[in-house]
Amino acid sequence: MSNRDPFPMRSKAAEALESSVKESGLAKDGEWNKMNSTTLLDDGIRVSTASDKKKSESNALNEEEDDEKGIEMEGDDEFFDRPLNDKHPFMTWLSQNASYLFIKLYGSAMPESEIRRVLLLASTLFFMIGGYWLLRSLKDPVITALCGVEVIPKAKFMSVFVVLFMVAIYNKLLDSNMPKYKLFFLFGMFYFFVFSVIAYLLTDPVIGLPNAQASPNRLLGWINYCAIESFGSIMVSLFWSFTNSNVSVTTAKSSYGFVVATAQIGSMLGPLVVSQFAEKVGIPMCYFFGALCMLLLQGTMAIYVWIYGAGKEEKISPEKKKKKSGVMEGLWLCWEHKYIMGLMIISCFFMVQVTIVDYTMKVLARNHFAGKYPCLPNMTCWDSLTNSSVGLSDDAVASFAKFLGIFGLCTNMLSFFSKLIRY
Which of 16, 202, 245, 306 could serve as 208's disulfide partner, Cβ 3.0–4.6 Å? Predict the structure, then answer.
């Protein structure tokens, strides 16, 4: 292969350079332009020489070290340090608008990467609380239609033991060092399956809503009530546990109000869906909408884990494991510390009053809609043997659900405006 230079330099300066290098004897013919050397031409032009090679390399190394020190002093670059999956144009557009929203609401903007982190976590809580309030608005109409309004206090009492059982399972899995995000997906898929099956069974002509003869022995109403109660206790606790291990204190202080306000918007939209569509598409379809929220909240959490990872999952060795607190640890704390017992008594009295008032409202609402949309002969809620009504008509059940949807919407609207402003 020829050593001819494919791009020869024809200028006078190039010819002078070539002749000076050849005269110095530092290069062979045809290789003058491939040398790593310096020499000083007659007209003052300086080129590389072999004697200066080590000096230039040493200077380059020193410059690289200075650059590295400078980078460490300046801090991390927010754009280049973010994950590659996080540079999508849509995410950039979303973060810019979210930053503007943060400035309007709180007066200062967080770093761009932290804004996207907060948005994903807020979206997860949005679907969680929105789905919960959607299902909560249907919980009492369903058990009233299937089992009668009289069983609601018993179902409330029974749900306490169901929640304790689910919490015991949750604590057991948490002590097994299973990553929190896997627990999140595990419980999320469990509740999606449970709520989807309930939504399907509500359309069954025998055990579902088409059979309007209320009976305390209809198991579907009890499962519906206890499943929704346990979901509100388990999933919300699991979300905050995951969030606390993945968000810094500074970000938490800046974004807590925004996250809670976003969840409050979900708590308004959930009942709004019931109030608008319970009479149009039916209660089973609205129930399935709530089940879909279980998938959506897992989708936003999956995107978060994909972009930011699972966070710091602390694995405790068997030697360092502390004594397990247990489910009943709260009662022991109340017994040992009198001020905790006082707080428990105040909370219990408050919840007793709320439960009594809430149950009274639902009994009055049930009687109102039963009178407005009475059960007539030839309906499934009519007993031909006793020639009397033994349940609610379809219109009464749908109107009852719509009323609770409006009630939930108004309640959460008041709560939203109080939580939007950060004091």
Answer: 202
